[in-house]
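Sample pair:
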Amino acid sequence: MKHSLYRGGRDNEIIALFRQTFTDSESEKEGNHIGTLVKQFLEHTPNEGIRVFITTKDDQVVSGVIFSKLTFEDCNICIWLLSPAAVVTSMQGKGVGQGLIRFAHDYLKQEGVQQLVTYGDINFYSKVGYKPITEEIIPSPLKLSYPEGWLAQSLESEHIKAISGKVYCVEAINRPELW
């Protein structure tokens, strides 16, 4: 298996991976919803606002994770959002997703990213260093429907730096129903 920064040419395969993974784990409706979100990320997010990482095995994409840049009104700390992530159903529970996320963290740290946030399952994301936070520590771009799922990690130290002020996300994920 090989982890890498995605550089284009396999959009349909990546969209299908996310669609099928979320169909298998949630429902066909959720799979279509996430597939559409990933398509929006890939087709409409400027390169400076997105990083997509994939794992390939036998030249097939078996996992993917998308990071997008957050912009803060009153702060110049470089923070990116991890969302969404997917691993082909037959390979889940084998460390593939964790390995890809760690690879992505190393890459983003080299690019100068200081902190990461995600909105998801603490039981999974704690395995790769994320800790629960409140919006008083780092505000979310939109109102959270599940505040317990707001998680962060510093790539510089053990401590997460608190941020204040308005935060903006890329357009693909700037929809209240996603939060």
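The mean pLDDT is 96.
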